[in-house]
Write a structure and sequence with these properties.
single chain, about 230 residues, alpha/beta, 4-stranded parallel beta sheet
Length: about 230
């Protein structure tokens, strides 16, 4: 059978050839997209590269030149949390201690009331877990001991605010609540803030409470705790 093809008179364009050209272009574009999708790295790999780039900058931290949180090599998630809570410029205790803590050094800080000590340890606490790609599936990584319930609660609020873009779980163990209820949740926590008495009680009575993989121990107002 003969194929009939209608060409609009006067246009000069062959619709079959135009279609073929369009089909080739479409196939090429689709191929490019497929290649690009193939090259796209998985999220964990991108995150690992970002962490490696941050760690490279640790040795270059110059405390004297730090004025803002963004001068520290810290994660975008922490930085975003800080900015959303309107924290941009560092206070003296933050400037002097965050860099050392990021470098993995033990830090003993002392500064007067209201000088911003809480963020000086909350930021490194978030970063140490971030760097190890800690997830809510992992165990306890950071333990913060506060001398009083009020202080523990305040610290928890700061942690919640600044760490809201991370996926870690955090718990407050301060007594005054049902011990059994606390016990059932304690093993799911990546970061725990507790008062000394309640912590001891859980160490004695909660069989599955363990801190064998702890990455950071923080004693808030150590002089009152020790
Ligand atoms: N970098 C910052 N920029 C602006 N405000 C800040 C900064 N750091 C802390 N603050 C604010 O300063 C106040 C005191 O901070 P914080 O409670 O951490 O001090 P502190 O030294 O722990 O005090 P205390 O010894 O009473 O516990 C808080 O209201 C906090 O939000």
């Amino acid at each position: 059978m003969e194929e009939s093809r209608s060409v609009p008179s006067g246009s000069g364009a062959d619709p079959v050839r135009s279609f073929e050209r369009w089909k080739n272009r479409y196939a090429k574009r689709k191929d490019k997209l497929r290649q690009r999708r193939k090259q796209k790295k998985p999220e964990w790999e991108v995150e690992r590269e970002t962490i490696a780039a941050l760690e490279k900058r640790f040795s270059e931290i110059n405390t004297n030149e730090v004025t803002r949180f963004s001068d520290f090599p810290i994660s975008r998630k922490t930085l975003k949390g800080l900015q959303e809570a309107q924290y941009r410029m560092v206070t003296e205790i933050q400037k002097q201690t965050i860099g050392l803590a990021l470098q993995g050094k033990d830090v003993l800080g002392a500064a007067k009331t209201g000088s911003g000590k809480t963020l000086a340890f909350v930021v490194p606490a978030l970063e140490i877990l971030y760097r190890q790609q800690w997830t809510a599936m992992d165990e306890l990584g950071v333990l913060i001991i506060s001398p009083t319930r009020e202080l523990a609660y305040q610290t928890f609020e700061v942690l919640r605010k600044v760490g809201k873009n991370h996926e870690f779980s955090a718990g407050l163990i301060i007594g005054g609540k049902d011990l059994k209820q606390e016990s059932s949740k304690i093993h799911n926590m990546n970061i725990l803030i507790c008062t000394p008495g309640r912590l001891l009680q859980h160490m004695d009575e909660t069989s599955y409470f363990h801190a064998s993989n702890l990455q950071m121990l923080i004693l808030d107002e150590a002089d009152r705790i020790l």
